[in-house]
Every structure is written in C-alpha cells, then in structure tokens.
C-alpha cells in the first residue's frame, strides 16, 4: 500500500488551498495575467502575442497538472495493470489547442483572450510544433496517447527528449535544405523531474563467477555512465479528468557539470567534453523514415531510453511489494516497432543479474510482458545491428541475446527435427560478415503478441518476413490492429466548423467519443441545407489553405479548382514520382488543346508536401522535379488556372491540420504491399476528402467501409507485384507510351537540366522499375480522368463526401486502443477519483 506524504492532521490546510479549475472567462484572464506578469515577468506594456500565448499555455498547464496529479494518485492507489507505450518517436504537434478542446474550455479562453486584446487564432499559431518524429509511426504514437487518456486507460508513454526534432525544411531554388529544429526555447508543456535520474551504463566488460552455492553470477563492470533525466509531459484525455504522462528522457553527464580539475589546470575544452558527449545522446532525432542506417549513436539512443524506462517501470512495480511473477499482471509494455527491442534483454538482465531470478522464471516474466507492433515489411527498414558493435557497446546484452537465441534454436530443433534448414533462417543472429542481430526476430521471440497495423499488412508479415515463426509459434501469436486516428485533433480541432455541423445534426459532440455514431449522418445525405453547408465548409477550408499557400509560396491558387493533395514523407515506395509524372502528362495534354477543348478541362491544383531524409538522394530529386514543374506550369499563360503545381515547404502536424480539411482528392498511391497502413488517408476521409489509392495498407479497409463508389482505386495488386518485378528483369521492358512522352520532355530539358533527373528516370527505364511506376501509370491516369468527371457533378460529389465521413467510424484510434487493451494488454480503464475518495 502507498502512503500519502502529508499526515492526516495537516491535510485540512492543504485541501483548503488546493487550486481549482477556472470555469469562466474572468477566472481564465486572472490566471493568464498572473502568469504573464509574474511567471514571465512581462507586463501590460510589453505583452506581445508570444507572451500572450505563453500566459495562456501556462494557465492551461496548471489545469492539466491538477488532473495529472489526480490521475497519478488514483493509478498508484488502484494498483492495477498499466500500459507502457515505448516509442522512439512522438509526433505531437501543438499542444495548446488540443488542451483547450480536451478540457472543453476553448470558448472560455477565446472570450478571455478577446477581453485582453488578443485573437485566439493568432495565439494558437505562436506555438512551436513538438516534432519528435518522422511521420506516420510517430504520429500514431501521439494519437494513441490521446486515445489512451480519453478512454481512461492507465498508460505511460516513454520516449526521448530530443533537443532537435525533425529538421525544418526550406526550399531554396527548388531544392530541399535542412535547418535544425530547436524547439525548446520555451516549452511550457514539460516538467523536468529533478528527483528522477537514472544511471545508464555503456561499454565495459562482463565478469562471470560462481557464488558460494555454486550458482553462476554475472556482472557488467566498467565502461561509462550517462545520466537519464526525466521530463514529463501531461497528456489530457477528452472530457475526462484522466491526464496521463509522457515521460521523455534527456541525457546528461553522470559526473556533475564539468571536470573541475581540468578546468582549473586551464584545459577548458576537455573539461566540458564529457558533458557534451553525454548530451549528444538525446540531441537529435534521426531523420530517416522507413530506413535504418546502423549508426552507433542511434544504438546508444535506443539503449539509453530502454534502460531508463525499464528502470522506472521496475522501480514503480517494486513499490507494490509484489512477487516477481506478478510483473506481467501489472505491466504491459508495447514496443512501437523494433526500436525499443533492447528492452527485452534489459529486463532479463535486471531480473537475472540484479534481482537474482533464474533464467526460466525471468524468461517467463519477460515473454508475458511485451507486445511488438511491426510497421513495415520493407527490407531496408528492418533493423539489424552488427554483433561487433553490440559487443563493444552492450557486452552483457549481447550475451543475453545469444542465450535467448540458443534456447530458441534448441526449442525449434526439438519440435521441428526434420527442418534443419529453418534454423539458419530463423536465428536471431544472421551469419553474415560481420554477423548481425536481427531485431525483429528478437522482438517477436520475446513478445507474447505480434501485430501488424492493417489487415493486408498483418497478412503479409505472416507470409513473408515471419512465415517460419507462424509455423513455430502457431498463428495465434499474430494479430492485426488496424491503425486509427484521434477524431479530437483530426476533426474537432482541425475542422471546427464541420465538427459543429455534425454535432448540430447528431444532437451533440458524442461522436467524438464514439466515432461510429457518424453513421447517423447518412440520414441527412439528402438534406439540402446540410449538403449546402457541408460544401460551404469544404470551400472555406480551401480558401484558408489557398491563403497559406499564398503566404508561403507566393503562388495564387483558385479555391474553386479541384485540390489534389499528396502530403507525406517523400519515398520511392510512396510514389510521389508517379504523381508528378501524371501532372506533367496533364500539362502536356492541356498544352495540346484548342481553346474550345480547354473550356472543358476541370481546373486542378496539385499540392505536394513532405520531407526527404537528408541522405536520400532519389527523394530529394523528386522534390526538385516537383518544384521545377511548378515553376514552368504556374508561369505558363496557356494553362492559367487549369493547372497549378505547389510544393508546400516544411510539412508538419500543424500544416496537416490545415491541409487535411481542404482537400478534394488526396493521393495514397504506394506500390501495392509496401505501405503498412497509412493514417493520413483516414484523416482526409474524415474531413470529407475522397482518395485515389492503390489496394494497399488501410486503403483496403477504407474501401470496405466507404464502399467502392466512394473511392478511386487503381493499379496492380500486392499479389502480382513479385511477378511483375521478375518480368521487368528478365523480359524486354516496354515503357507505358504516355509515360514515355513525359520522360521525353523531361529529357529534352522542359524542366531544366535533364541530367539532374536522369537517376530518377533510369531507375524506371533501365533498372527494373522496382516500384512499378510504369505498370501503374495507365490506370493512374485513367482514374484521374474519372475523378475530373466525378468532381464536375457537384451533387454526386457531395453525396460521396458525406457518405465517406459517415462511414469513417471504424478508423478512430479509440477503437485501436480498445482492441490493444482487450487482445494484447489485458488492461482495464480506471477513472480518476477525487483526492478525498482515495484510501
Ligand atoms: N507526417 C505528418 C506531419 C502527419 O501529420 C502524418 C499524418 O497522417 C503523416 C506524416 C503520415 O502520413 P501518411 O499516413 O500519409 O504516411
């Protein structure tokens, strides 16, 4: 049982002065002005929008903290199982708007700010995005935090507090330039926990000996120690008192600030060297999406974060004084991809080397505690670490991994004696030069459940990368949890007018807690007034995006044109190249038209956005091509408003919140079988945007939900991809004729120096077109023509938009979290109690 720190006789005084939530504009103003005048030391005379943002954020932070305290107290006293979500990325975006809406006080704050002389919109836009992630994987983790809190699950997120999040992207002369994202100048949403520091060890050597009872003992000695410092970020649920915790670890030198002896002897530079080396660990997010690079610092980050998190989780468990066998009944740890896989050998190390458990008992605990989410089947994204590197950095963990592998291989040998070939394939250690540790196999073997993130993807992992393991463990170890998105941020916050319109029809905002209620909108599909308002909202959102485009690129676009959007990380498998080749094809068609023919053309704005990993040359070439095409097309008087091509700089969460509600068509056109799920497809649909897509990832389930009439599918199927690739390599390769035309004009210099695009074209023409751009080009172009025709029938299009929104109920991340809780975590919700009701 847990004791309160204040003795009973003194609690009365404490309770008397407990701060209360503000509920009126006046109370909000009082809090905000107090923070501006005192916490920030600004005044009536020098309060700009930045300071007003800071004051507002601090006023809301106070509210969150009160709920946070209550939530943590309730969870501690209730002493039930908790979820620990380990993710190297949390792509949170801005926090203020979300906090105001989740605690249902945005109107109060708007009125208050207006009294103080500010406009809500200007204040919200002052906030720097918390961009601690690359793309879908990190944003998923953020949506999951929102859902876990909103559904009252006792849950913690654990991540790294990068000093630099994903870089800012600038476009200079049509090229991507990376600029550091220093986001911590002012961050009111985190609390440094000065009392929570964990020593994390690296390098050193392992000593083994027999103790007096003849038992083998093991210790990890020497090397270097780095301190992990906890920074806590409150995560408020929607209209509930639950406020969960996201704990981010920062690194610092173990031995205080700097080496005083070196400093005194005049060696100033090396006096701070240790400190700087330690701080490097949490300095920067690796900017690769779906690509692993095997850098030592990355492995250090992973272990640093796993070790600190596990220490914290074990410490919390030990406070309950339970037996170790209870650990899996109290702790569910979810591994978001293989990045936190070292948590498995780390927990074994703690249990065996430090707590003295036997291997079998420790393994029993570990293998009931972890769940592993796979996010990709792309070979270049599957994590492997070289054995020599791991030996050097984490010698004890490597031994444990070898022990796990030995036990596993012996188990397989016993159970599949006739299948010796399998042993080499399934070994955690790849017998390459150098040997490599296959992290996905380690994660799978150490977890009790493995899940993919959309139906097709979950099927694919069972027939490709994990085929042997399905035979070994049986199919029940594998499951699917199709990704989802939080409707709070991606509908209510991003598209307040649509949220209000839906609420007016459904009799309130309940649908934000149960998204399946959206199906009731179908009853209004013929309601003239509703249809009109729905269209007006879409148009207003497009006007807002057009304004942002004007401000950021200088280009004017017509909001009445069809907005065609592809925003996501730039990647060959996501096929932005297919999109831009399609745009060039369209441009050539328009150029060849008579004035009469042009009148029939559906005007379009093609909008691209997304970052390329700094070392990913092909992706950078695509960005350059898009910009070059934009330069030519947007200045061509023959084309005018019929076609505009925009590249939006620095795509991030807060831009996504403006872009998603403003699209008519968005593109989710990955080579079939390559995109695990995608989540932006769901965000667009939830905002009444239709999609053009391949039969890939969650597009398939979106089709099942919205109906084939409401989605524009094209292209080859996943099951045919391998044969097509094979054919490219061994048969004479014939390029799609329309695509050949596109390549001709690129090669003739229509978009500037042809040489700079040659690798992109050669990859298709000469190197086997791995991503099947040419195979899918014909059906892509044809489908775009169907979209033009469908868009012209505004009534029919309106029906499609409304039906799409009405049928998106399945894609709430609340549904995902309930599925995880039931099928993987076995965790129950827990509503925070008032302090007085606690034991
Ligand atoms: N990047 C950002 C900034 C996002 O908001 C999202 C959200 O969906 C993604 C990437 C993921 O996009 P996709 O699912 O299209 O890969």
Tell me the layout of helices and strands.
Blueprint: H1 8-16, H2 25-39, H3 49-78, E1 82-86, E2 90-93, H4 96-102, H5 106-116, H6 120-124, E3 130-132, H7 136-150, E4 155-160, E5 168-172, E6 175-179, E7 191-202, E8 205-210, E9 216-221, E10 224-236, E11 243-253, H8 260-264, H9 268-271, H10 273-280, H11 296-318, H12 327-330, E12 331-336, H13 343-354, H14 359-369, E13 370-373, E14 384-386, H15 387-393, H16 395-415, H17 420-426, E15 429-430, E16 436-438, H18 439-445, E17 449-452, H19 455-463, H20 467-473, E18 478-480, H21 487-493, H22 496-506, H23 528-553, E19 562-567, H24 576-591, H25 595-598, E20 604-609, H26 617-634, E21 643-648, H27 653-659, E22 665-668, H28 680-686, E23 690-693, H29 699-706, E24 712-713, H30 718-730, H31 737-747, H32 758-765, H33 773-792, H34 794-806, H35 813-825
Parallel strand pairs: 1-4, 1-12, 4-11, 12-13, 13-17, 17-18, 19-20, 19-22, 20-21, 22-23, 23-24
Antiparallel strand pairs: 2-3, 5-6, 7-10, 8-9, 10-11, 14-16, 15-16
Helix pairs in contact: 2-3, 2-5, 4-21, 7-35, 11-13, 13-14, 13-16, 15-16, 24-26, 24-31, 24-33
The structure holds pyridoxal-5'-phosphate.
Describe this structure in words.
- The protein has 35 helices and 24 strands.
- It has a 9-stranded mixed β-sheet, with helices on both faces. Strands 21-20-19-22-23-24 form a 6-stranded parallel β-sheet, with helices on both faces.
- By secondary structure, the protein is α/β, with parallel strands linked by helices.
- The protein has 3 domains: 1-78 and 96-128, no CATH class; 79-94 and 129-482 and 823-831, 3-Layer(aba) Sandwich (Rossmann fold); 559-811, Rossmann fold (3-Layer(aba) Sandwich), CATH 3.40.50.2000.
- Bound molecules: pyridoxal-5'-phosphate.
């Amino acid at each position: 049982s847990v004791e309160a720190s204040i003795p009973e006789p003194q609690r009365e005084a404490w309770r008397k002065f407990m701060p209360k939530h503000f509920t009126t504009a006046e109370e909000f103003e009082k809090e905000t002005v107090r923070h501006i005048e005192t916490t920030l030391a600004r005044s009536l005379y020098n309060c700009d929008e930045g300071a007003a943002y800071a004051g507002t954020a601090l006023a809301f932070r106070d509210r969150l903290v009160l709920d946070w305290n209550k939530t943590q107290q309730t969870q501690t006293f209730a002493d039930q199982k908790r979820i620990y979500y380990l993710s190297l990325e949390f792509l949170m975006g801005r926090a203020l708007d979300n906090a105001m809406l989740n605690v249902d006080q945005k109107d109060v704050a708007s009125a208050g700010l207006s009294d103080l002389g500010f406009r809500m919109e200007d204040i919200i836009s002052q906030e720097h995005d918390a961009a601690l992630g690359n793309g879908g994987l990190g944003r998923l983790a953020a949506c999951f935090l929102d859902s876990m809190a909103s559904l009252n699950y006792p849950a913690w997120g654990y991540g790294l507090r990068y000093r630099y999040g994903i870089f800012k992207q600038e476009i200079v002369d049509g090229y991507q330039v990376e600029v550091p994202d220093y986001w911590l100048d002012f961050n009111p949403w985190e609390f440094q926990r000065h009392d929570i520091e964990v020593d994390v060890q690296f390098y050193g050597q392992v000593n083994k000996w027999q103790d007096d009872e003849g038992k083998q003992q093991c210790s990890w000695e020497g090397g270097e120690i780095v301190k992990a410092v906890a920074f806590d970020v409150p995560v408020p649920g929607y209209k509930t008192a639950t406020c969960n915790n996201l704990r981010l670890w920062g690194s610092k030198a173990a031995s205080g600030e700097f080496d005083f002896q070196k400093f005194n002897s005049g060696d100033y530079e090396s006096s701070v060297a240790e400190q700087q080396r330690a701080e490097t660990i949490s300095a920067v997010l690796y900017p690769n999406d779906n690509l692993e690079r095997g850098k030592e610092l990355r492995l250090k980050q992973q272990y640093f974060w796993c070790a600190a998190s596990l220490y914290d989780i074990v410490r919390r468990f030990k406070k309950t004084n339970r037996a170790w066998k209870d650990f899996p009944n109290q702790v569910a740890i979810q591994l978001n991809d293989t990045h936190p896989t070292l948590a498995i050998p780390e927990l074994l190390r703690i249990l065996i080397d430090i707590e003295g458990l036997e291997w079998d008992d420790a393994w029993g605990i570990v293998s009931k505690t972890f769940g592993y989410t796979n996010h990709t089947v792309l070979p270049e994204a599957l994590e492997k670490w070289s054995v020599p590197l791991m030996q050097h950095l984490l010698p004890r963990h490597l031994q444990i991994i070898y022990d796990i592998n030995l036990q596993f291989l012996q188990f397989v040998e016993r159970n599949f004696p006739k299948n010796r070939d399998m042993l080499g394939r399934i070994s955690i250690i790849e017998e390459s030069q150098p040997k490599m540790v296959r992290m996905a196999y380690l994660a799978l073997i150490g977890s009790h459940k493995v899940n993919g993130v959309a139906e097709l993807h979950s099927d694919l992992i069972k027939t490709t990368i994990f085929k042997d393991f399905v035979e070994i463990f049986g199919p029940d170890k594998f499951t699917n949890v199709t990704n989802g998105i939080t409707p709070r941020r991606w509908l209510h916050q991003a598209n307040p007018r649509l949220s209000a319109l839906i609420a007016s029809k459904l009799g309130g905002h309940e649908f934000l807690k149960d998204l399946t209620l959206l199906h009731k909108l179908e009853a209004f599909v013929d309601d003239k007034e509703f249809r009109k308002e729905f269209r007006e909202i879409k148009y207003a959102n497009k006007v807002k995006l057009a304004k942002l485009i004007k401000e950021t690129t200088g280009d004017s676009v017509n909001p009445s044109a069809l907005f065609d959007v592809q925003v996501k990380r730039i990647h060959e498998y996501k096929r932005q190249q297919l999109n831009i080749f399609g745009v060039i094809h369209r441009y050539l068609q328009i150029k060849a038209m008579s004035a009469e023919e042009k009148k029939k053309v559906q005007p379009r704005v093609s909008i691209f956005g997304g970052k390329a990993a700094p070392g990913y040359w092909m992706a950078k070439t695509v960005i350059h091509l898009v910009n070059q095409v934009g330069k030519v097309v947007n200045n061509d008087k023959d084309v005018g408003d019929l076609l505009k091509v925009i590249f939006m700089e620095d795509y991030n969460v807060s831009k996504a919140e403006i872009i998603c509600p403003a699209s008519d068509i968005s593109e989710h056109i990955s080579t079939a079988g390559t995109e695990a799920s995608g989540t932006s497809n769901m965000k667009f649909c939830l905002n009444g945007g239709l999609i053009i897509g391949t039969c890939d990832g969650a597009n398939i389930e979106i089709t099942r939900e919205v109906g084939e009439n409401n989605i524009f599918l094209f292209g080859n199927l996943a099951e045919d991809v391998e044969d097509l690739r094979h054919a490219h390599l061994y048969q004479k390769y014939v390029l799609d004729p329309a695509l050949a035309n596109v390549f001709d004009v690129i090669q003739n210099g229509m978009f500037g120096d042809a040489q700079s695009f040659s690798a992109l074209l050669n990859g298709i023409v000469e190197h086997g077109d791995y991503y099947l751009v040419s195979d899918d080009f014909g059906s892509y172009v044809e489908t775009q023509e169907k979209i033009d025709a469908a868009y012209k029938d505004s009534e029919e299009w309106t029906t499609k938009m409304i039906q799409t929104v009405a049928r998106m109920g399945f894609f709430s991340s609340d549904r995902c979290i309930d599925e995880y809780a039931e099928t993987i975590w076995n965790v129950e919700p827990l509503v925070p109690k008032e302090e007085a009701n606690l034991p």
